[in-house]
Amino acid sequence: MAFEIGIMTFGEVTEDPTTGRLPSPRQRVRETIEQAKVADEAGLDVFGVGEHHRSDFVGSAPTILLAAVAEATERIRLTSSVTVLGSEDPVRVWQQFATIDLLSHGRAEIIAGRGSYTESFPLFGYDLQDYADLFREKLDLLLKIREQNPLTWSGHFRAPLVDADIAPRADGDTIPIWVGVGGSAASAISTGRLGLPMAMALLLGPLTFHEQTIELYRASAEQAGHDTRALPVSINTHGYVGRTSQQARDVMYPYFAKGMAENNHQRGRGVRLPRTFFDAQASPGSGLLAGSSQEVVDKLLAYHELYGISRAIIQMGFGGMPQKEHLEAIERLGTEVAPVVRQEVATRQEVAA
Amino acid sequence: MTVTTPPVVDAGPDTPTAGATLRVVVVNGSPSRQSKTLGLVDVVLDTLGRMLPVEASQVDVYRLGPGFTGALERDDVTPDVDAMLRLAEDADLLIAAAPVYRGSYPGMFKHFFDLIDQYALANKLVLLAATGGGEHHALVLEHAMRPLFAFFQALTVPVAIFASAGDFDGVTLLNPRVYGRIEMGLTDVVDLLTSRATGVRATADS
What is the ipTM of this complex? Predict the structure, then answer.
């Protein structure tokens, strides 16, 4: 498996902590398209848009942003990161991604997730009590839709489909469907049983934090009779590629701290991340992909060795990183990091073969 | 109301055929009708059923109603609640299962045991099981539940069983490590369980 490197965004609409300026949603959607364009030109493999239903993100409808990105780019693969499948209609999800696939000549992908934010459930009339059952059933339907058309299917949470013609079909044979896993043992196990690619969302903590998740995923896949060597695993994580080690940390810190304060609450209030804690997260033993190009190369290779991943999607704009700095980091990731990591992983695979 | 399941769990090719049936009573401290706590108990009962003949009943403390919640002492309970208390007092194996609430077992669960006769559980086999939102709750078994049964001078099974929310898909336990721990905990005491079984031996056609 060739190693793939990409970026993702939630389309943050966050006040810049250094200038106090709040970008407009109009500005952020244009910037999101521009990020994808730069990523495509820099040779990155994947561009992802996450789904959040709040005023501080413009990513409520990732498929529409991805459709616009499809028109602005040539080669880069386009994925949701993630589609909150439990509160979606899988028929609609398929139709939208199949359309993106047609628009982009087969570049569409789906990461189906349970969602770490829960706003979409009341918005679309779902009960959070059904969180696990909703996801299980809707994933089953989405996979069936991918598998066959017309389709007859019935479940608990939507009207049955009787010989339903679900169109359009994908541009090529199929659309890759990954499952987003936040690190819980049960998610990893059910994804492994289904033999689906796993997109692991990492936040902070030691590099080795998710060894057990990966282990359980591969063990349950193997037990269910799937070829684990053919199963791709990716990490989705925060990071920033800077000009130097110090510059990367200095640029990323205020925005990342701001994003964390707004999204990571304890006792109902945002927690401000101390700089020392942030610097520790960026150190070689920890998971954050922040640093110079060489540091990020080293850490991606460490992840590859540890977890056997074949893809990394990095979120570099969390907390409202200004567009200029964001684009510079995308450029570096594409031109200085990705080629080295791809080459090194290919060499490792040749040696192993 | 209380749910008392009919005799269940045996069969299976490797089920021992000799010996009496182990009468297991689950005291379920979860308020939810479908719960992770019961998901965990299901796996325990299934594992037990593969080791020896088992007859399981269940007391849902949150479904016992005002005849239970309104009782300050044992004398205050209604006859149906008294029957449930006696069921627990007479079990061969008691499974005490509860979710972590505000740092401990829920108040209703404790209320049930507050009404249990002081010496009724002496030397009784008790298996402790708990579920919590995260691993940081795991010691509820040792710091809250085991001392409660130490008061009763019960014979608690050395290995207690804990599972976190992340080990479940909905209410189905998936983490093999927890399965392994259940297997180990029960294997430790299987001889004791067999010798304590007092139920009528299940007939072939039952």
Answer: 0.79
